[in-house]
Amino acid sequence: MYNSLFYKISLSACILAFLVIVLGAYVRLSDAGLGCPDWPGCYGQITAPDEAEEITKAQVAYSINNIDSGKAWKEMIHRYFAATLGFLILVLSYIAWRNRSSANQPVFLPIFLLALVIFQGLLGMWTVTHLLKPSIVTLHLLTGLLTLSLLFLLVLKQIQFQKHLTEYLPHKQFRHWARLGLIILVFQIFLGGWTSTNYAALYCIDFPTCQGEWMPDLHIKEGYHFFRESGVNYEGGVLSHEAGITVHYMHRLGALVTLIVISGLAITLLLKAKHSLIRQTSIAILALLLLQVSLGIANVLLLLPIPVAVSHNAVAVALLLSLIVLNYVMHTPTTRTKGLSV
Questions:
Q1: Rg, Å, the chain Cα set
Q2: In terms of C-beta density within 10 A (0-12 exposed, 13-18 middle, 19 or more buried), how is residue 324 classed?
Q3: Any long-range contacts for 313-316 (C-beta under 8 Å, 24+ apart)?
Q4: Main-chain phi, psi angles of 135, to 5 degrees
Q5: If we measure between CA atoms, which residue out of 282, 283, 277, 273 comes closest to residue 338?
Q6: Residues near 183 by beta carbon (within 8 Å), at least 6 away in sequence
Q7: What's this model's pTM, rounded to 2 decimal places?
Q8: Of 33, 41, 62, 176, which sits with the fewest C-beta atoms within 10 Å of its C-beta?
Q9: Which residues are catalytically annotated?
Q10: What pLDDT is attached to residue 9?
């Protein structure tokens, strides 16, 4: 491994990034995204107002009659976790730069992560100031996932997988399928994020049909209009009924493609790969994929209960990390190709 302190902080930041994403999903799904109308504080203070005097002061200052302290605290707790993550990444960048002369010290990735988390903070601010504009909220989600993925990659790079690998790794042609699976999953996560930020999860409350139809009329142009006007409060969604159905249905189609491609990849590797690490990762991917599909169906049939919806987000992230592991191991330079018949 590399520097022990650097590794421990990297791992801690990775775990914290996962928690930040899940907390963000909980905040969004509980309609607390505008629990604080300002940024980085909340009604002009560093904590959410919950005392009678604080609430009265905030009502006067912001001309808001009903202040929901519960939603405000949800938003602020999410911000505290995100700020802590930013601090850990700053520490990683400092250690990396200080030890840049060391041959085993990653430098570019921690510095890039620092720039990325600063941009992520700006997106968090714009999420509030632009009143939950879907394009900004979705980009905020995707950059959060990118931050987590790069932190996870940083952790993987510090683990000497090479000494655990043998000659029984897949043929290189399956590397392309693993990469394709990762790309498809990322696109499906985008479709899911766009569905969530446009509040389109319940535009179809039947399954497997949508509004009683196998193929409803789709309004792609309206459903995926990314550059909407500013100054509009997007909380609760502003899509027309037809556009909302389109966004929801496209997420379902994406889920079907994701299920076919990734399950096919995992099953193929289980049947043909002999190395235990590849097989274990494939089993994890298959289990998470089936769980994710089940949670998606449950979201529809149970009308989006928050525990199920948050779990749907968390499992999507876990599935993403599993595919990153698979791609990383299969692209390890010392990988050999003897143990797979094709």
A1: 22
A2: buried
A3: 313/21, 313/22, 313/25, 314/18, 314/22, 314/25, 315/288, 315/291, 316/189, 316/192, 316/292
A4: -65, -40
A5: 273
A6: none
A7: 0.92
A8: 176
A9: 75
A10: 97
